[in-house]
Amino acid sequence: MPGRSLPNGARFGVGLSGILRPGRRRIRNLLGPSEAELRANLAGEASADAALAIQEAEAAEAAASLESVEPEITPDLEVLEPPTAPVVPRDLTAAAFFDVDNTMVQGASIIHFARGLAARKYLRTSDLVDFAWKQVKFRITGKENSDDVAEGREKALSFVAGRSTAELARLGEEIYDEVIADKIWAGTRALAQMHLDAGQQVWLVTATPVELAQVIAKRLGLTGALGTVAESEDGVFTGRLVGDILHGLGKAHAVRTLAVREGLNLKRCTAYSDSYNDVPMLSLVGTAVAVNPDADLRELAKNRGWDVRDFRTGRKAAKIGVPTALLLGAVGGAVGAILSRRRERALLAQLVADRAASESGRQPMKMFRRCANSR
């Protein structure tokens, strides 16, 4: 994959914060965009650039491979053309945009990837526990802790720094086949296929690194993926992000940038997500659908008349908004799946429980028993 450099500035103004708080947008415009908004804009533009560059590179590679294959000619035999499937007319101005975590994939794709890395000794178990705990807090509270985000960003960048983009893509393909393939929501995949059958583009939009997101999109037969872009030079990661992690306003800006580049009519587009944090993206398109929604998004969808699709079992859906401790068993089990011995799994659950207890003030052993009983 060719190296990428920083795009030329953030040219798209304030972004979409006014969608949620229109009364404050006028003040924000007078003061100019904040640093966070500029980073989100830059992340969105870089994500669209990277997604289209990957798409063009793969198309060129496919065309080159076809040209290199010479047809085999058998003399004195009539060559019968194989039957071809009818070509679906392309709908050039409509597209669908799918969030990944808990929308297309059960759980957090980056945790699934981290599990695969830990199994290959790229990560320590303690790193995995810490990362998993931050993800649990985010899923329960629905809010991102700035310190957690910054720490997670630095750890991720330190991991990829000096590695090749090709290596990350290769690891992504291996781990998808081993871990993620069985975690695709069949209902969400069917929704994506509905758009494909209508001749529309279908894009994933995620905070996951774009190289990994593209693997998921390719495996599912989708158009492509918009994801977080880590800067690279000559195919090697520098350890810096282009803009910021692609989430919230960044996702909305990526979708809007892609729409401009591809000539899409956003009023004819559809977006799917499980998280209230994706309201800027959902509000940008003509049709918004809440998939496996968190409590806040479910309420907003009801108020705005958005469609709701819930593919979880009743037990999983009932977990929306429950205390973090009740999910420790599930997280400990998911992370512990990379460990082969019972003692190590128990230790991992203890570590997660102790981490939760230190932040919640609960007794560690009581929480650990709850974890053990839930497995």
Automatic annotation (TrEMBL):
<keyword id="KW-0460">Magnesium</keyword>
<dbReference type="GO" id="GO:0016787">
    <property type="term" value="F:hydrolase activity"/>
</dbReference>
<dbReference type="GO" id="GO:0046872">
    <property type="term" value="F:metal ion binding"/>
</dbReference>
<keyword id="KW-0472">Membrane</keyword>
<comment type="similarity">
    <text>Belongs to the HAD-like hydrolase superfamily. SerB family.</text>
</comment>
<dbReference type="InterPro" id="IPR036412">
    <property type="entry name" value="HAD-like_sf"/>
</dbReference>
<keyword id="KW-0378">Hydrolase</keyword>
<keyword id="KW-0479">Metal-binding</keyword>
<keyword id="KW-1133">Transmembrane helix</keyword>
<dbReference type="Pfam" id="PF12710">
    <property type="entry name" value="HAD"/>
</dbReference>
<dbReference type="InterPro" id="IPR006385">
    <property type="entry name" value="HAD_hydro_SerB1"/>
</dbReference>
<dbReference type="InterPro" id="IPR050582">
    <property type="entry name" value="HAD-like_SerB"/>
</dbReference>
<protein>
    <submittedName>
        <fullName>HAD-IB family hydrolase</fullName>
    </submittedName>
</protein>
<keyword id="KW-0812">Transmembrane</keyword>
<feature type="transmembrane region" description="Helical">
    <location>
        <begin position="320"/>
        <end position="339"/>
    </location>
</feature>
<dbReference type="InterPro" id="IPR023214">
    <property type="entry name" value="HAD_sf"/>
</dbReference>
